């Protein structure tokens, strides 16, 4: 009853507001900002612009010309920082002008804005402050301003200060931390100063999404056409990143709230909105009703109380539009023109902030699947990067704030979903998940062809360098992202080189059986057998006897990790392991990763100093988890990496099955296997390569790699390992010779130490 009461209170509050006479508030500048401006169609704009050519030409003269430059992009800010530090150490650091771009969340120094936490709220507040500044300038120039209290402006946006910081940025190579310090010293915004520095810069360092997402690329001032050498590092993530950025999901809750909020908005301002605006608002409401109808629900009712028939449907875009009965709506016109020009999503967000409180209702907070009801693809990707790197309570608070914004202003995410539906019918699918109630149900756009969004980048650039340490297999990468984007074979040049370490510093072993002779076959049917789990425990026990420092053991999934560790606790194997090395486990929360890694490192350092007794530490982790990418287990932190089984993805996933079906239909078959089968194998081995690549991080480092599963011995599987690992790999059908090789490897290293 409390939940229902809160919903009724919010609805009543908005209803009362809609009955007020908007004319009474016409003198309120905040109220004026919520009104959609007069909308002009493209034809009307073209007619009007015929008489504005001279003015546009003058503006073009003020735009600074871009010099020929290199864009270097990678997945995370930490990877970009590593690159910048390498540039600083190079002989080119004194000769090159380098600019590092980042989001407002990373570069803002206005504490009032930073404390908002979420990406969306920081962006909105920053834009609002810039608008206030423009209005203040107009007022100072004699333009009459509407009555009302003076609005705050950002104190870090002075022209002279920005110019000074821009010159500082171009004069010396700086990382993001130094940019923030310089911004505070010069009282200038690093976010805008770095963007002003892009045209004359020779090297621009930026995260993936600023290159791969067209709208973000435009906003950042990134120009690729005809002059750019683009280096994309960590490129094994490229296909998944493109798919993630351009995929999006909406819950039934978000759809119902968007419809309710837009209805209240149009009711309140119907006397002040032009007929054309009201027409488009009605079309958006009609589309929202159709999306809710596709989930088996109705608007105007509590989504938590509406039951739906559980099930999952995979539909083409056209079939989904037909199912939702919105196939007669010109989505491109409604979306790209009206949403962009009217800024209705931002207007609605401001309306809710002013009149609807936080807009977070209890049924949103208690939804069991709320974590999966993400924002649009780009914001979800940005939030993923944040959660993978953030470890402080403030970051957790920011994540909570984002959930509030998602619930309060879902129209922005509706806008992203409708944009996704403008993709070609063959390039994507719509997944309709019905979970028993409308609130828990969702509709998701799944991008099947990432090449369609990469094609423009490839077309505009003079050259593109795609680099990574775990790019194998290259042939499948070329087929999915290059050939499918229209790139001819003659334009592609491949280059591969070995690792910086000498061959004797690595010992890769494929282990086909354990100490008792049990064959290692971690297929789904066999891996839960008690004798398989016992044999795995014996293997780890033997490894811990001869490997100094840290051992990192990767399991194929969180669920299997939980089951095998529970089995070892019951059998006593875990206690025996803990007598050899102190045991650490990958935490469930990203905020705890740094703490676990610090304790793991300190334990190894203490054992190395003390000697005797415990010999280092054993860390249990998960492939694809928080410690399988972006974490460096160098030197004693990772003297041995153990891979238990093969981490194949869930073949029963409807999304994965649809992706396989798409590849089988559109890509050529080769080597006696279908492209869909190749996708499954490649996803598995790319995950393996990322995990085992956590060890051996510099020229003098050394480590052993133990692959525990007979299936690793297959030639087709071995071929997917990086060459510098594959060339040194030995397959052992019995445990004895493998253990002898492992013991000799570390004895030799110990003897060579000074």
Give an overview of the whole structure.
Belongs to the DEAD box helicase family. DEAH subfamily. DDX11/CHL1 sub-subfamily. One of its GO terms (biological process) is nucleobase-containing compound metabolic process. GO terms for molecular function: ATP binding; DNA binding; DNA helicase activity; hydrolase activity, acting on acid anhydrides, in phosphorus-containing anhydrides; iron-sulfur cluster binding; metal ion binding; RNA binding. With 754 residues, the protein is an alpha/beta fold. The protein folds into four domains: 164 residues, no CATH class; 147 residues, Fumarase C, Chain B, domain 1, CATH 1.10.275; 41 residues, no CATH class; 250 residues, 3-Layer(aba) Sandwich (Rossmann fold), CATH 3.40.50. It has 34 helices and 16 strands. The strands form three sheets. A seven-stranded parallel sheet has the order 12-13-11-14-15-10-16, with helices on both faces. It has a five-stranded parallel sheet with strand order 2-3-1-4-9. A hairpin with a 7-residue loop joins strand 7 and strand 8. Helix 9 packs across helix 11 and helix 15 packs antiparallel against helix 16. It is globular. The chain starts with a helix and ends with a helix.
